[in-house]
Every structure is written in C-alpha cells, then in structure tokens.
Design goal:
With about 100 residues, the protein is α+β, with helices and mostly antiparallel strands. Helices cover about 35% and strands about 35% of the residues. The longest helix is centred in the last third of the chain and has 15 residues.
C-alpha cells in the first residue's frame, strides 16, 4: 500500500481496523474492516484502485484464486458501492484484503 508508516498508524487508531502485517511494507485488512478503511482513505484524498482477497493459515498469507477486483476505472463516488458488493460476495472465502494500489485522489 502506498501509505507512510505515520498514515498507517493514524488509520489504525482512527478506524480500529484489524490489520495483518507481513514484513516491513505488506499489510492486509480484515474483510469486515475494509469498508471503514476505504472510507477513511477517501476522506483523506486517497483512492484505492484494486482489491485482492487472501487467506492466512497461521504461517503464510496466500491469495485466493480469482478474488481480484479492479476499481481503477470507477468514478470516486462509485468505489464504495462496488467495493461493498465485492466484499459481500467474497465474505465466505476471503479473510484478508490487500488494497492496492493506493494513490492520491
């Protein structure tokens, strides 16, 4: 994700989102927290252009095949609506979501 460490810490404090970190730069949002994170990002002028679903078995994080959503062609006001539908469809198969890329609005 394209956020600074400071911005990520602010996001965590202000949204109370469940986030799984992997290494220094990778982080994944718990699927039930994604909408709050998207709203926080949009309110600060960021835009998420894609979502990718992942699972975690306790030792590794793995992408879930075919669970990728391209939001890059959507108008800003449509991103939340489409993301909500996508996340509802994914809720039985995906535990974590990578939001990327994140760009300035």
């Amino acid at each position: 994700m394209g956020l600074t460490e400071h911005a990520l810490q602010q996001l965590l404090i202000e949204t109370d989102a469940l986030v799984l970190r992997s290494g220094a730069r990778a982080w994944y949002v718990g699927i039930s927290h994604v909408e709050a994170v998207l709203q926080w990002l949009q309110s600060r002028g960021f835009r998420v252009e894609g979502l990718e679903g992942f699972t975690c078995d306790g030792s590794s994080i793995r992408p879930v095949e075919s669970y990728v959503a391209d939001l890059s062609d959507l108008e800003s006001d449509a991103v939340m609506e489409v993301a909500s539908r996508v996340l509802a469809d994914w809720s039985d198969s995906v535990a974590w979501v990578d939001l990327s890329p994140i760009v300035v609005g």
